Amino acid sequence: MEGPRPPHPSHARAVPRDEAGGSQHKQRASLSPQPRRRAPRLAAGRARALGLPTRGTTNANRLRRVDRWLLATQVPRLRDPVRPLVVDLGYGASAVTTLELVERLGPEVPGLEVVGLEIDPARVAAVAADRDPPRVDFRVGGFELAGLRPVLVRAFNVLRQYDEESAARAWDTMRAGLAPGGLIVEGTCDEWGRRSAWVALDADGPLTLTLSARVSDIDTPSDLAERLPKALIHHNVPGQPVHEFLRAFDAAWASAAGFSTFGPRQRWVAAVEALAAQDWPLVGSSRRWRHGEVTVRWSAVAPV
Ligand SMILES: C[S@@+](CC[C@H](N)C(=O)[O-])C[C@H]1O[C@@H](n2cnc3c(N)ncnc32)[C@H](O)[C@@H]1O
To answer: Is the CB of 171 under 6 A from ligand 1?
Structure first.
């Protein structure tokens, strides 16, 4: 199903087709130097989507963790603008996770519009039957966001397939395309959505890192390191803040072993409480911790 494709008419200079696990797993999609204009616009009739087609792996319910976080924390942001437009960037080989996003946010956000963007035109053609604009639509587009000005961008399991420099430029390009007050949620998860991590960014830059897990599925919190977003994964080494954070989390987890009697989620909550007591700048309601989630301020984990 996923044989090699010709280079897309984009800023491509290399087209590795493999997510982690394939024979080309050391290669990463790379974009040529950033275009001069900060917010590239699409020429009329000549759409130029920024990015490269990569593997389209997806699964029903895979993105439930980030969607629950969006529901719990971002509904006021979505209700604020006149046009609550959401972009799901890189929805993959089927429309399933985009449709789930509509189902989850729709009841809470009057007038919600979700547009799934794919760099691969064949994947847009394949989901034509799922189009129901303006509620949900699918178009060809890349990091330039197809000229849309969304208040929220969910980009999941997309940037990990790029090299770190290209991923950083992709952040900049997407940030420039946001509506005022907009947010990008960029992250990664495993195939079944049990281990997940994401960064939230606004027009000024990254704000937070969230880790979220089915706690019964992990041995230690640092198991989530394998799901860190591109901006952090290569920095999980001694001396870097994200490594210190995961080390502190593992130590707190070990100290909270006694809470296992009450279940793994109670142990997670106790460990996160210990992190808060150590002055790690945790963000948001402690109620989220019961869901196997924790959000920390970006400044505490940003690479140095
Ligand atoms: C692994 S799938 C992720 C699917 C879904 N978001 C998920 O998490 O299950 C990655 C998809 O992102 C698409 N993609 C890669 N770069 C892109 C870009 N710059 N803009 C839009 N889509 C992109 C690929 O073509 C692929 O279909």
So the answer is: no
